[in-house]
């Protein structure tokens, strides 16, 4: 499909069903990392804009929350059809503002469709419980929405991450204020337009754009009941501490350093292609990317195969750009420092230039061997198409390297031994485990969420776990018939 380079002069706030003028407001340029060109200007909101959005959401809440859930989800059945209709245009927009390749952008929007599909099944999942607990006396439990809730998103999935929260939170009767990443705010404008087209009442979904200032205002706002956050660990900690200090519920997903443990008996072709794809997919800018490979035992042939696979990944063709010049510089700094510390760069993606996109921010696939666990590249999140190989003598040593990470989003093992796989499933300190799977993202209805410093808060962000986050339980005890004989509930 031909590349669409759209121009979006203004990225606005969306409040009460209307896009608001940005005239006279603080704005920031939105740059496409494909070419370094400015494609939009996004408003950087403050407390005043947030108050407007909260007022709109609050006004919409009584009507929306009292609409039966079977009616509420009809909006999402229609919305899913619209997403399917617009799939390619939405993907082109994701590519334009984020820089990933079109196939990855299509897969991203397809995941938004799957998440919407899950929300459509919400009536089946929250039908409540009822029991006659004593003669003539019933107890029942219902899930009730919280009210006005907030969702804060990162840059790496401009369409999918907002869908981790929007369909479920809204289907369950909440009214939401979304804060997209200021680096990729344009896709969310289409989300607002399409939800409206699907019949969502005005005020149920709102957008405030901005940066740190608006996030802090969201954590502080007394009328916001819950904050869902996805981003780096540094900011996840700030948001979690600030939102909970203000007595809100909060789930804050942070960064990652995912380990792939590759055993000597791993299937050669499958492992090599999976590891290379996991490391380079979305230019390594996904919290489920393989970042550190722990190579166990005699495994030089596998390392050679992984290098061969990595060399087939061509920037600008099947590898997208990274998000910014600063990101490119950070990634290359990690590679330089590892090399200086004694690691061996086997495939080198530094100083990458793509013909026709000379000012784009590209880093080629990079494989670095003989990384040691004390190096920064082994411990910190690089967020680029870089694989750091750490050698280990045996499975115990490999697991101890994995267990020592502060993060805990994902861990995978490549092996043909059920016993080894079982040990990694048991002993890896991560929320999402893969067995011969390089990117072990759970599909709906299984929930998404890491451990350790990759997630703060109790619930996962998607799946059934999100139901507990977006609702509170109402417990009612009922007795209607005075004729029933006296008992302990009387
Ligand atoms: P980021 O933390 O810089 O930004 C995330 C959001 O926080 C943005 O909306 C941003 O405007 C806001 N923000 C930034 N600095 C802030 C501050 N000081 N105070 C308050 N708000 C602030 O993250 P990013 O660079 O947009 O995204 C990449 C990060 O997100 C990576 O670390 C990646 O691993 C992580 N991520 C995690 C998951 C997960 O599921 N755990 C999923 C996607 C991305």
Could you provide a short overview of the structure?
Helix content is 39%, strand content 22%. With 490 residues, the protein is α/β, with parallel strands linked by helices. The protein has 2 domains: 3-255 and 450-474, Aldehyde Dehydrogenase, Chain A, domain 1 (3-Layer(aba) Sandwich), CATH 3.40.605.10; 258-435, Aldehyde Dehydrogenase, Chain A, domain 2.
Assign an overall shape: globular
CATH class term of the largest domain: Alpha Beta
- Name the CATH homologous superfamily of the largest domain: Aldehyde Dehydrogenase, Chain A, domain 1
Strand order of the largest sheet: 15-16-17-14-13-18-19
Account of the protein in words:
It is a single chain. The chain is of the alpha/beta class. The chain has 2 domains: 278 residues, Aldehyde Dehydrogenase, Chain A, domain 1; 178 residues, Aldehyde Dehydrogenase, Chain A, domain 2 (3-Layer(aba) Sandwich). Helices cover 39% and strands 22% of the residues. Strands 15-16-17-14-13-18-19 form a 7-stranded mixed beta sheet, sandwiched between helices. It has a 6-stranded mixed beta sheet with strand order 10-9-8-11-12-20, with helices on both faces. The chain has a 3-stranded mixed beta sheet with strand order 1-5-4, with no helix packed on it. α2 runs antiparallel to α3, α2 runs antiparallel to α6 and α3 runs parallel beside α5. The chain is globular. The relative contact order is 0.13. Bound molecules: nicotinamide-adenine-dinucleotide. Nicotinamide-adenine-dinucleotide (NAD) binds next to α7 and α8.
């Amino acid at each position: 499909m031909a590349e669409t380079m759209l121009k979006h002069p203004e990225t606005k706030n969306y409040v009460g069903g209307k896009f608001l003028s940005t005239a006279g407001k603080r704005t920031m340029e939105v740059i496409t990392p494909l070419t370094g060109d400015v494609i939009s200007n996004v408003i950087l909101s403050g407390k005043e804009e947030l108050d407007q959005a909260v007022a709109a959401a609050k006004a919409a809440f009584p009507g929306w929350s009292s609409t039966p859930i079977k009616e509420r989800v009809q909006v999402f059945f229609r919305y899913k059809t619209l997403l399917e209709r617009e799939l390619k245009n939405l993907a082109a927009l994701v590519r334009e503002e984020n820089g990933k390749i079109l196939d990855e952008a299509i897969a991203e929007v397809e995941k938004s469709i799957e998440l919407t599909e899950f929300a459509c099944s919400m009536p089946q999942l929250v039908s409540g419980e009822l029991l006659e607990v004593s003669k003539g006396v019933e107890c029942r439990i219902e899930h009730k929405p919280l009210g006005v809730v907030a969702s804060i998103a990162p840059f790496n999935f401009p369409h999918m991450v907002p869908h981790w929260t929007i369909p479920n939170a809204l289907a369950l009767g909440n009214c939401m204020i979304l804060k997209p990443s200021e680096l990729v705010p344009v896709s969310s404008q289409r989300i607002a337009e399409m939800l409206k087209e699907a019949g969502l009442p005005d005020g149920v979904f709102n957008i405030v754009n901005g940066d740190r200032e608006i996030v802090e205002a969201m954590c502080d706002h007394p009328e916001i009941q819950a904050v869902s956050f996805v981003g780096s660990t540094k900011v996840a900690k700030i948001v979690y501490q600030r939102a909970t200090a203000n007595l809100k519920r909060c789930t804050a997903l942070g960064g990652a350093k995912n380990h792939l443990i590759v055993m000597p008996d791993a299937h050669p072709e499958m492992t090599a292609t999976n590891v290379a794809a996991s490391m380079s997919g979305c230019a390594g800018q996904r919290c489920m990317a393989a970042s550190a490979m722990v190579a166990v035992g005699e495994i030089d042939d596998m390392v050679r195969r992984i290098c061969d696979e990595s060399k087939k990944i061509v920037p600008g063709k099947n590898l997208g750009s990274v998000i910014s010049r600063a990101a490119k510089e950070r990634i290359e700094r990690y590679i330089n420092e590892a090399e200086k510390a004694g690691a061996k760069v086997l495939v080198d993606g530094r100083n990458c230039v793509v013909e026709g996109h000379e000012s784009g921010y590209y880093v080629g696939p990079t494989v670095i061997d003989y990384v040691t666990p004390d190096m920064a590249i082994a411990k910190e999140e690089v967020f680029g198409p870089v694989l750091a190989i750490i050698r280990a003598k045996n499975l115990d040593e490999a697991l101890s390297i994995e267990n020592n990470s502060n993060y805990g989003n994902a861990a995978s093992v490549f092996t043909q031994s059920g016993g080894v796989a079982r040990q990694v499933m048991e002993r890896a300190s991560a929320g999402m485990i893969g067995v011969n799977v390089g990117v072990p993202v759970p599909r709906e209805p299984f929930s998404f969420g890491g451990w350790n410093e990759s997630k703060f808060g109790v619930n996962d962000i998607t799946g059934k776990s999100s139901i507990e986050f977006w609702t509170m339980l109402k417990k009612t005890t009922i007795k209607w018939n005075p004729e029933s004989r006296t008992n302990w509930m009387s």
